[in-house]
Design goal:
mainly alpha, 6 helices, 106 residues
Length: 106
């Protein structure tokens, strides 16, 4: 089985997820969707990446994040790169969770 997908196919997969998330109403539907679509380990991984993004934004060291969350250096590094030069998703989420407006940081 070929695990490589084209950039176009990757974008289609993202759009399928975005459309599904966009039609959900409220936190209860989001919780139900995540419970149905993700395994408990996948939910933990997603949550830990969000916590890592928050900790990086608060200037915690990689070591602090790795020790607290048990993430690999590669994962923390990827989250860090995405915050600094990614599509803006982590930064927008962290700013909104902190009550800030991401549009003010563009």
């Amino acid at each position: 089985m070929n695990t490589f997908i084209s950039e176009e196919e990757h974008k289609e997969h993202i759009e399928n997820i975005v459309r599904a998330l966009a039609v959900l109403k409220g936190e209860d539907e989001f919780r139900a969707f995540l419970a149905d679509i993700c395994t408990p380990q996948e939910i933990r991984s997603l949550s830990n990446r969000i916590i890592a993004a928050q900790m990086l934004y608060e200037a915690h060291s990689y070591k602090d994040i790795i020790d607290r969350l048990g993430l690999s250096t590669a994962t923390v590094g990827r989250v860090s790169r995405c915050i600094k030069a990614g599509a803006g998703g982590y930064l927008a989420a962290v700013l909104r969770l902190n009550g800030d407006n991401p549009d003010e940081y563009k």
